[in-house]
Amino acid sequence: MSNVFTQRPGGRMPSGFPNFLSVPLVILIVIAVAIFLLWPFRTIDQGDVGVKLRWGQAVDVLYPGINIVIPGMERVVLLPTRSQKFSPPSLNSYSKDTQVADVKVSVNYAVDPKKAIEVYSRYGATFVDTIINPNVSKRFKEVFGRYDSREIVNKRKELGEEVETAIRQSIPSSIIIETVQIENIDFSDTYEAAIEGAAQAEAAVRKAKQELEQKKVDAERVVVQATADATARITAAKADADAIRLKGEAEASAIQAKAGALRDNPGYVALTAAEKWDGKLPTTFVPGSSVPFVTVPRGSAP
Known about the structure:
Layout: H1 19-38, E1 41-44, E2 48-54, E3 57-62, E4 65-68, E5 74-80, E6 84-86, E7 91-94, E8 100-111, H2 116-123, H3 127-144, H4 149-154, H5 156-170, E9 175-187, H6 189-264, H7 267-276
Antiparallel strand pairs: 1-4, 2-3, 2-5, 6-8, 7-8, 8-9
Helix pairs in contact: 3-5
């Protein structure tokens, strides 16, 4: 059998390449393949850690950067240390008053880098399916069943906090549960219509109470105004009465003072009359009467 590398006339190989390049080229290709298959370096991206397995046994944690892995003997399993979101299918759950609802829940989680070997050794690379998913479903339904449907609607924040606490406590500390969100609660159409009707009825009751309270306030305002008006009128009447009384007392005091003056000064009347006389004598006299305003002292000369 002829050798495929037998040189032909002209110094060229059957492939068309010069003979002196044939062997080195093959060697280079073999070396390149060997390096590719036996490359001992492994790059870990930021946000992941690698669990190094040697003959299938977890022996070390590889952090972001270039790491050495012995080909054929060792391999690397990546676990996420950056926040990951897990959203299971809608959870069909029953409330305390046996109302069914489809609830959409999501969980943000990450692996503790220092406990990556523990996570892989106990739960494997599919730890989401083996530990997170069943615990989320179980704990959520337990907490959801403690609330009746009305509380679920009115206390959604408290429900979410209790669900998050229950899930976090049921997951090993090697898996960090960052947040739990209740994204949607979907009751049956019939029940949602009933809830809406009840809410409208409660709103009507609250409105009626507010209107009643407003009427009470208005009535009290009227009473207060009427009382103020009556008080004002009584005060004014008392002021008028006091004014009349004071005026009467003043007039009585004046009369009493005048009477005392007349009593003590008999000539005061004649003086007053003389001051007011216009100098004309009356044209008629009553028989036996004296001439007005003229007083003749007794024993005086004519």
